[in-house]
Amino acid sequence: MAKDRREFLKNSGVLGLSGLIGPFSVFSEDHDFLNFQQNSYLIKNTEILSMDDSVGDFLGMVLVENGKISEVSKNIEIPQGIEIIDAEGGILIPGLIDCHWHLWTSLLRSMSGNSLQEGYFKMTARYSELYSPEDMKLAAKYAIAEAIHSGITCISDYNHNARSWKYVKASFDAMAEMGLRGHVSYGTYRNMKESDSTDFRGIKTLKELIESDSKYNDIKLGLGSRYANYQDIMLDWKRARDLGLRITIHASSNESQKGQIASLYNKNLLAEDVNIIHGNAITPREIEFVEKTAASITMTPYSEMRIGYGLPKINQLNESQINCCVGIDTTALTGNAHLLDTLKLLQNLANANAKNEFYINPKKLLKMATIQGAKNLGIDNETGSITPGKTADLVLLKKDDLNFSTGNKAYHLVIEAALPSNINMVMAKGKVLKYKGKLTGINSDELIKKAKERFSEMNQEIG
Ligand SMILES: [Zn+2]
């Protein structure tokens, strides 16, 4: 082994002509001296779950250069002076992609109470009126910090406190400042009148603004559609598509909304650019409609179950050709943003329904939160797998915690055992956003303090 390593170092150029390791390499081996300003790294000694069949899964190395994955291999010649991250046998997965989240509700964590008045819809409607655009940004940052902690590097935010374009811009600013990729759906707001038309003037203003500033390059604008049967749906979706916007819609969320997906299909609205949220009441015929049109479905099982929508149709969807994805939806209902736990819930529900220990493969589940999420958002050529040429959106889980150390079935470990605290490193677009379990780019204490202060003020205003 020692000889192999010496050979490797010699071949890799780390051992120079003199046989000495250069001082930069010595520093970069020391975790406390990792340079977070970089966007070029070599990750070594890691079990790679690439989520790309042409790359495969193996113990090896990943080279990141200028924010992009340039090589994935068992052995890589180490470029001189590059920062090295030693995974020490840990597991590397693509950055997780959340396909449905209302970021603004993060200040209202677990605030859905025990009566109709305190229930999710009435409670969020009451608080939503107190938000300013600055509050929207604070809430989004507070949510994104937790997302990064949980291994999420791309979020599809459905902004449904869109009282003006400034409220939606807050999501863009939060994502841009925190270094994430994203998609922001311009939605409605809680007490918007049925007769009010969709704010295309605001959508166009925001679209021009984000397109004129490169800091928003990796954040896309979409339409957060109203429910399936509103009067102007066909006109609005056409206008959105003419602007190049993808469309997100809550549909067939529970039994009382049964038939909504069929209604969208019958109006010829479904296509590859549509992200259907929930779908708990989807019928076998509607599954065929969604397959035929290549729309995606995003399940948010924790919020769906918590609010009483029923169980996700994981078995039927798993057996279909539909591009299935997952989301947090709202921490007002889910309590936290542990997206891997969402996959575990789906795994256990699917196996329980099938009464079969081997029914669903954990690799299939991890695809829902990685490559399939990227496909849903139309960015699968940029992210969603550990593939040379794609952006370096990566998550490293080190195997040195009480709950995460033994075992060698990597997919099962990631789905079943992993907690956000086991996530050692999160990289988005080649920037290290979490390292050694701590967020690198933001002052978490300050953010928590601001979130607590604003939440407490809102409570006083509500009385
Ligand atoms: Zn939702």
Automatic annotation (TrEMBL):
<dbReference type="InterPro" id="IPR006680">
    <property type="entry name" value="Amidohydro-rel"/>
</dbReference>
<dbReference type="InterPro" id="IPR006311">
    <property type="entry name" value="TAT_signal"/>
</dbReference>
<dbReference type="InterPro" id="IPR032466">
    <property type="entry name" value="Metal_Hydrolase"/>
</dbReference>
<protein>
    <recommendedName>
        <fullName>Amidohydrolase-related domain-containing protein</fullName>
    </recommendedName>
</protein>
<feature type="domain" description="Amidohydrolase-related">
    <location>
        <begin position="91"/>
        <end position="432"/>
    </location>
</feature>
<dbReference type="InterPro" id="IPR011059">
    <property type="entry name" value="Metal-dep_hydrolase_composite"/>
</dbReference>
<dbReference type="Pfam" id="PF01979">
    <property type="entry name" value="Amidohydro_1"/>
</dbReference>
<dbReference type="GO" id="GO:0016810">
    <property type="term" value="F:hydrolase activity, acting on carbon-nitrogen (but not peptide) bonds"/>
</dbReference>
<keyword id="KW-0378">Hydrolase</keyword>
<dbReference type="InterPro" id="IPR050287">
    <property type="entry name" value="MTA/SAH_deaminase"/>
</dbReference>
